[in-house]
Every structure is written in C-alpha cells, then in structure tokens.
Specification:
- This protein has about 240 residues and is mainly β.
- The chain has a single domain, classed as Porin, CATH 2.40.160.
- The protein has helices at about 1-20, 180-185, and strands spanning about 25-35, 40-50, 60-70, 75-90, 95-115, 120-130, 140-155, 165-180, 190-205, 205-220, 225-235.
- It has an eleven-stranded mixed beta barrel with strand order 1-2-3-4-5-6-7-8-9-10-11.
- The longest helix is centred in the N-terminal third of the chain and has 19 residues, at about 1-20.
- It is globular, with a radius of gyration of 18 Å.
C-alpha cells in the first residue's frame, strides 16, 4: 500500500510542475554516482554531472561533488562534502557568461525495504551556497542556504529480496527549499522540485545504468519553468 502512495505522489509532482510552469525547456543530463566503503564505518562518495542548456544548445552546468561518509550501520549514514558548480549562460545579445558556485553540505541518508524487494532511500541535505560574480560586471556574489529532501525507490521487474542483477524501475522526487537569504535566489521559500521516472539495468551489486525522464520545476521571481530532462546515470558501488 505504501508503494502505491509513493507512485501517486510522484505522478502528482510531475503533473503539478507542468500545471504551474509558465516556461518550458528541454535538456539532457548525464551523471556518475559513486560510493565506496573504506572500512566498517568510513567511506566516501562522489558524483559528477553534466547538464545542457535548453534545446541542448551548449553545456550549461558542470557539477563535481566529493564527500566523506560515516556509516552507522548498513542502513544509515552521514556525509559531509564540498561541491563545485559552474554555470555557463548567454545574454540576450548572445554573449557568453560564467558563474562559479561553491557549496559545503551535510546530509543524512536512511535506506529501508518496502515490501520484500523494493528499496527506498531518504536523503536530507543542508547546503551552504557561495555564489560568485557572474561575468557581466555586476557585483552579485552572495551566500545562501538550501534544504533538500530526496526520496528514491528501486523496484526490480522480477521480485527479488536480494536484488543483484536484472532490470528495474527507478522512481524518485526531490524538493528544494531556500532556508536563508531566499531574496538573493528567487524570493521564494520553495526553490524547485525534481520528479523522475527511469528504467535501469543492474549488471551486478556494484554497477547500475539507468535512463529516464525528469521534470525539473524551478520557481523564478515571477514565473516558473518546467525543464523536461532526458537523464542518463551510472551508479557504481565498491
């Protein structure tokens, strides 16, 4: 029953984003997510992401995010890390712009089973964002904090309590909230929502590949944008 409620919530997020968005975009994202344990309790994680601009006109974002992990047990962990994000843009005149962002973040992750075979992950992340000046001679660097809640379900096509190989469906949703200096971002407490559905293949317990669709709804000062994203992701675990 809980699984049905999760799927319904995801569909509502997808539909709600489209209803409230005044602008629509299309982009392609690629990502690599890696986690590795070094001992019973310690490990690290890294993800690298590449995101295109609207209509795949150019590479808009590069994100590099390493972190140190402490595992309380196999289902609970905390991470502390750093992220570097580059944002390339274009002015109305077609001139190129560039803006760097540094983030420090802290997160807690809880993993558990829903039924015999479905794995659910909950991630709570707090980010301290340091945004540098954009390349248009404006002094607009600032600091802000953002909270993110992420939930993801991995649903094997063939029910298996010890899922180690085969096809699966990935469902996830993430909500972003501005908790400090929201006036510097978009004046709203709500920042964005990312709803996603994908189809993946688990080659082994150490390697997944997944292709899916993400609806990224971002709130601007006076409007909203729905970004329709083709998302390719690789997951590795050691």
């Amino acid at each position: 029953m809980r699984n049905k409620y999760f799927i319904l919530l995801l569909l509502l997020c997808l539909g709600g984003s489209k209803l409230h968005a005044q602008n629509s975009q299309f982009s392609v994202w690629g990502a690599w997510f890696h986690t590795q344990k070094l001992s019973e309790h310690w490990g690290y994680a890294f993800d690298g992401q590449f995101r295109s601009a609207d209509k795949v006109d150019y590479l808009r974002n590069i994100l590099l995010r390493p972190s140190v992990a402490y595992h309380f047990n196999k289902n609970q962990s905390v991470n502390v890390g750093y992220a570097y994000v580059t944002t390339n843009g274009r002015t109305p005149d077609g001139e190129k712009t560039f803006r760097p962002e540094s983030r420090i973040f802290e997160q807690f992750t809880q993993v558990h089973k829903a039924g015999a075979s479905i794995q659910l992950s909950h991630r709570f992340r707090l980010e301290q964002r340091y945004l540098g000046d954009s390349a248009d001679d404006r002094d607009d660097n600032y600091f802000a904090q953002r909270f993110r809640y992420f939930i993801r379900a991995v649903i094997p096509i063939k029910r298996d309590s010890n899922f180690s190989k085969g096809t699966y469906i990935g469902l996830q949703n993430e909500v972003f909230l501005n908790v400090q200096n929201k006036d510097k971002v978009n004046t709203h407490f709500f920042d964005q929502n990312r709803a996603y559905v994908g189809f993946g293949y688990r080659f082994s317990k150490k390697f997944d590949m997944e292709l899916g669709y993400m609806n990224q709804y971002t709130k601007a000062v006076s409007s909203g944008t729905a970004n329709n994203v083709v998302h390719l992701a690789v997951y590795t675990r050691l």
